[in-house]
What does this fold into?
Amino acid sequence: MKKALIIFFLIVLTFGMKALLPEGKSLHAEAALIMGLVLITAYLAALLLKRLQLPRLTGYMLLGLAVGPAGLNFLSHDLLQQLHFLEELALSFIALTAGGEFKYSRIKKFLKSVVSQLLGQLNTVFVGILFLLLLLAGYLPFLKDLEADMVFGFSILFAATALSTSPAVTIGIITELRARGYVTERVLSITILKSITLVIIFPLIIAWAKLYLVPGTAINTELFLAVATQIFGSILFGVLVGGIIILYLKYVKTEQSLFLLGTAIVIVEFTPMLNMEVLLTSIIAGIVVENFSKKGEALIENIEKSSLPLYIIFFGFAGAGLHIDAIVQAFVLTVVLVVFRMLFLYIGNYLGAVIAGEKKIIKNISWLGYMGQAGIAVGLGTIIEKTFPGPIGSSFKTILIASVVINELFGPILFKYLLVYAKESTIDD
Amino acid sequence: MTSLLSIVVFVLLAYIGSRFVQKRPIQNTYLKSIAFTGIIYIALGYLLSSKVLNIVTAEITDQLKIVFSLVLGWAGFLIGLQTNISGLKRFPLKYYRYSSLGFLIAFVITFLLLYGLLNVGPMNVVDFHSLLILSLAGAVTSPIMVAVVVRDHRVQARLSHLLQFNAAFDNLLGVFMIGIIVLADAFLVRESIQTTILYGLVVLLVSVAAAGIYSALTTEKISAEENFLYIIGLLMFVVGSALYFGMSILLAALVFGILTANLSDNTRRLYQNIQQIEKPMYVLLLIYAGLNLRFEISYSLLILFFLFHILAKLFAEYIANYSLGKEERHNGWLGFGNIGMGGLSLAIVLDFNLIYGNHSTQGILLIIIVTLIFQDGIALQYLENRLIKRK
It folds into this structure.
């Protein structure tokens, strides 16, 4: 009750201030005010939702949604743009943590199972969604008037975006529940490997789709070279950053959280300059530290202790950026696609687990850990919209974003359910 | 360079610098005082700024305002957090009289001398409210200088207590005064009196509410991370509301700090949790001062302020000392020990600069910095001679 009253009071107070002086004296003044509001109210909302067995991440997102452009508009589009650097920073930090959870000596014991499930999920979801769209193309308003080649090209892109699982959601829920155990290790390992794989194959899939979507396009060696340079460059940069962190841990030791924050900023800023991938670089840096330094685990523990504001910012902003209007516009189709993605995830995961001879819990319900989606899919949707301006591109993006919104909202809830069901949460809830 | 990378460079500089200073104790009194003024960070900030190397462009400096506002709020909050009202009752009334008189006289005399010359002389380069801020920044005393002497030497207890109390209390008065000046300036120059009072009351309400919320949230057991989150979140809200309505960040954060210290049982634990980021925050403040520094100022005003500040402090100390009564009164020119201005004088100017952001507020930064470098050294030298117990 006390927490609900505080949320209500702070929102009313902010509302009053905005009513008194709508624009404020400057944008950065408004940014500081709203950031403070989001940090406190999102966390309190998350604590309230805990009583409903919902994860904190969902609380951060719902509060973000409530104060974002679709709600009270305190966190307006302008502010979101102004504070975008914080979101990027949080993502790099989370990816570093994700890589830091990837200990090869631990994972090699069940590597066969991880690879088997990963391949099962990727193949089944991609092929399943691709065929589903080809079958439904005649009934979908934005595809029915297109030529067969174009339909195939769009279906490839849509199927590719359905593959992603958000590492931020995975690591966020594991950190929140301080989860440790059989299921946690497998879901985390698969999600990290999936993210790395997708970063590598996405440019190739886009190139493949362009063969059908842009007349006169042909696959050339330049494209492969560019992709290879980007990927190997990111891996090398990640190794370099990881090496620097190890040296720091060995010789300097103090102020680790501060140093890591600086490292995350360096990654966020240098990777676009060098045409590299933030996610891949951060994950690799985390993996290097975890696997080549004795202090890797202590470091990750240290990060997790100070990462609370970053998670709130990342998921609060993600919530504010959710396009609820997209769901309204294409509700039925979105629900169909989300349900079928879940079905294909289940089948792919089940087949992979059966081949690897996994336990019942992995075969039957570990797919719940892979539903969450976030930035990668939305980013791809934006690329598609820019590549194909006009009604086709924007309809495509609307449906894509609508399905990501549902997956993003329900993903954390289902993953939390899985970890609690598997009795791997170490906190009292 | 982008705003994020700028933060990395700043934090790195802050960190390396603090370790360097910790590892090499400085023996020379003047060098010690210069190290404590943080001139190296101010110089680095200036070098990186758009006026020299242009590594941190004017646009990035503007984007970073949100970070620096928080840093400034942090400074005000920490002053407030160390103000325990029940602890203040331990000090005799004459200490308050000594400190208040010293502060007010120094402020008024510096202002009157400067304002008088501004109107009759040729130096019509600094506007009225910038002169007020300059005089106010000059009226506060550096608590660090006394603390350094007390830390490094065996000192005369009674006099050092008085000086430490004076520095801490006039810092509080300084923050209250900047709040009043900003408020007065708002209704004289920017808004109507009703609007200004309304805005001021809203910011005050936010500060009080923030302290109440913190107190309410910490009645149940919370982790160190939650504690830190609540403070940072509420401080941002307070700082944001002050900036939103064009009020003093320092005062809003100070009120939040004082009420937090006195409403919550959790203060000691909170102080332990946040202490480790105190130094990097202070260094960021100095770098921000460097970024905003301008050399296009009236140098005659600089010289006049330098001289008037010493005169005003000496005179103020003389009168304040007289108010202590025969038994407590001390001999000599102790006013020299009070001429060190410390970091709060910079914070006051930066607070004003965040609200107005014009060239004259940036100009008075240089005046304060130059005065600070020389006069903090004189203050430290004088205090060492005066306070150290001779064998």
The longest helix of chain A spans residues 182-213. Chain A has a mean pLDDT of 84.
